Amino acid sequence: xxxxxxxxxxxxxxxxxxxxxxxxxxxxxxxxxxxxxxxxxxxxxxxxxxxxxxxxxxxxxxxxxxxxxxxxxxxxxxxxxxxxxxxxxxxxxxxxxxxxxxxxxxxxxxxxxxxxxxxxxxxxxxxxxxxxxxxxxxxxxxxxxxxxxxxxxxxxxxxxxxxxxxxxxxxxxxxxxxxxxxxxxxxxxxxxxxxxxxxxxxxxxxxxxxxxxxxxxxxxxxxxxxxxxxxxxxxxxxxxxxxxxxxxxxxxxxxxxxxxxxxxxxxxxxxxxxxxxxxxxxxxxxxxxxxxxxxxxxxxxxxxxxxxxxxxxxxxxxxxxxxxxxxxxxxxxxxxxxxxxxxxxxxxxxxxxxxxxxxxxxxxxxxxxxxxxxxxxxxxxxxxxxxxxxxxxxxxxxxxxxxxxxxxxxxxxxxxxxxxxxxxxxxxxxxxxxxxxxxxxxxxxxxxxxxxxxxxxxxxxxxxxxxxxxxxxxx
Length: 475
Hints:
The protein is of the alpha+beta class.
């Protein structure tokens, strides 16, 4: 099982299920000392967006039971299909859970699903590794390593700018019609198949700072391709970002975290399709109440932002995710979607793998005898946070020089208040639909929550608010 170390699938389940005392060592990380157990969850509500109740398998260390209770409550409230939760404290795996509703049979701790913008953490970790190796500096101009990028107002963009979502290309303006958004260049699957074509589109694109009126505009899909272009030019082997992640992170740590996985290799893994809340349920139980002022203010904010005429979030970047109001994940549920390198919004993984990588960051760049970067580079990547208005979100965001976010600054109409309070001290990011990838450097806590049922929240939501509130009582 790649996500927990170099041991076989049957051997891991044998060790996990067998009663034992003390810690079991699995591939360099100290795993749970308590046996796994099943919980049959009965539904507490008549209506809900997803499955009714479910079954949870896994284990939590003594004292961490409130976290499991919160995780199970999400199933009782019909908020889940399949979901995973993994938490490290130091180098010790404290929580290892997976659950599935009757509508998602066969879902386990090993199931992979797309985690959308959680992949931005991996991009940032790659850049921190390059800094650690002396290949780049955050203050470097992008054009120092990628000369073609110095076009149309992007000459002064630094790597730090890219990581802070100030790289100037959250979407692609047509150089000949910059004031006409109907002329925006839309990326297609042809760009995914031809990395030179993809990078040429970004190199030629005008900087959007003047068009948007703000320097910071969340690069929801595009940041990873800028990072990949830099990686290809500074890596001695000329690897793409996806190849670098596979060989220097996933294979080294023994985790299942992919930025592009071949069709042949996909047959070795189980995938769960991302599933959105049905449109009738969204309209009747979420959108309409929110807009009438009696529902969730976060949903109301999301709807209003999406409908604003000049909102950068409404600009179409690529043709495989649809456009407002029909944004969808369908391409990412296909073999071709999983083959593509879309690190900012298309990496499949599971909670175990994500949490193990996060634990490296929580522990100074190393875990279980494997060091990804120097402690100094790890610390630098999480330093120099700047607060600025983000035109995409319509509020201030706080991002480090290395590209990691502090979600506690987001307004209460963007993230649930209980969640922002519980996230104090945590860094990282979340993904569309509800996944969260975070760590607490001071407490050395690393958390990964991965669902395939997509809720209508921007970053986190009621499910993660419940889980992190419980986590706070433990830590």
